[in-house]
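Marked as duplicate of an earlier ticket. Keeping the data here for the record.
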Amino acid sequence: MIHSRIFAAAFLAITLALTTLAGCRTPSVAPPLTRFEFERPQMGVPFRIVLYAETAAQADTASAAAFARVSALNAALSDYEDDSEISRLSKTAGSGRTVPVAPDLWNVLAAAQKLSARSDGAFDVTVRPLVQLWRRARRQREMPSLDRFAAAREVTGYQNLELDARHHTATLKLPGMQLDLGGIAKGYAADEALKTLRAHGITRALVAVAGDMTAGDAPPGKPGWRVEVPSLDVPGAPPAQFVLLTNAALSTSGDLFQRLELGGKRYSHILDPRTGRPVTDHSLVTLIARDCTTADSLATAVSVLGPEAGLALVRRTRGVEARIHSQPEGKFYTTETAGFRRFLEAP
């Protein structure tokens, strides 16, 4: 899992093919809705909101509130901010302190730890020391030293993050532990942005951040939000397809651009927390869930687990469907759950 998925939008080629509203006035029931689009840099990436509203004033007010909510979440959840709540928590590692956790950070940590247990550690928010190590490896184009690798592994492991559900406290057991919410925080922020829009009377909206997006009610006169999902960049891969999202979320996870190639071997930017090493299978996971927190984190776990174990985990998760394109040993495969195709746009 990775914080560097912040660049995922560049290679996932996600496009929102939205048609302008025409002739949607319903007699004496509701005024026509107009499409509005907003984009701001948030959480290190472009954060995009597309919505339908009765007036520009309503759209502006709702979108501003949603962006303010995301900004507040970034101040709490970003490990890039020295004074964020997550950074302050990491600084207590190994001290024996039991630290009270605010509701948003608690929600994210509780969801992350639940998935860590369900995936046998394929998802793990304690991997920041390893993430930093492999980021440096990509920049320097050289493998990490064995000493640095061993040291980073010694201070990771989701079992060393202890949560008290009764008191909403967290304890980092080992000195040097650091938390990285890059595989779940953006999905949570997208969910919260959509909730904020709904609180302002906007139900027809889509929020997109990097490779994650969540959708509300469909655009007027449409069966859903039309979203392109890409394929692998290899010969023989099928063309991209479109899915239709309504009150659902989608996340993609893969190594199309963020990777390290050394000695003829391809190392993904996605780390396997169980080994401390990057995933080496060339793959692209598209995951659809009821909420973006689940979609974001589960897509990362499935990328780590691979098609067989990953889809087994998906099938044990209510309301989730997935498709995996992979190219192990140079041969292209597509694996998907039985319900994934019901989201595909009819040809």
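See parent ticket for discussion. Residues 80-172 form a domain with the T-fold fold (CATH 1.10.3980.10).
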